[in-house]
Write a structure and sequence with these properties.
Layout lengths: L6 H20 L3 H36 L1
Helix pairs in contact: 1-2
Length: 66
């Protein structure tokens, strides 16, 4: 998955994550569940990276204001 760079992309990723988790819960086989779980982990990593960058950017802005 490509990096998330905007709030709109974040919203799409959140929706994709929900779909992947729903697919995981409704999977009819372990193989299907594994595919959905792998996709959910990939999306979660992209979301986590985006959030961490935003937090770091916000903290840097706060330090620069003081």
């Amino acid at each position: 998955m490509k990096p998330i760079t905007s709030e709109d992309e974040f919203e799409v990723a959140a929706s994709d994550y929900r779909e992947a988790m729903t697919g995981y819960r409704l999977a009819k086989s372990q193989a299907q569940a594994d595919v959905f779980a792998a996709r959910a982990v990939e999306i979660a990593h992209a979301i986590d990276t985006y959030c961490a960058k935003n937090i770091a950017h916000g903290e840097a802005q706060d330090r620069n204001r003081n």
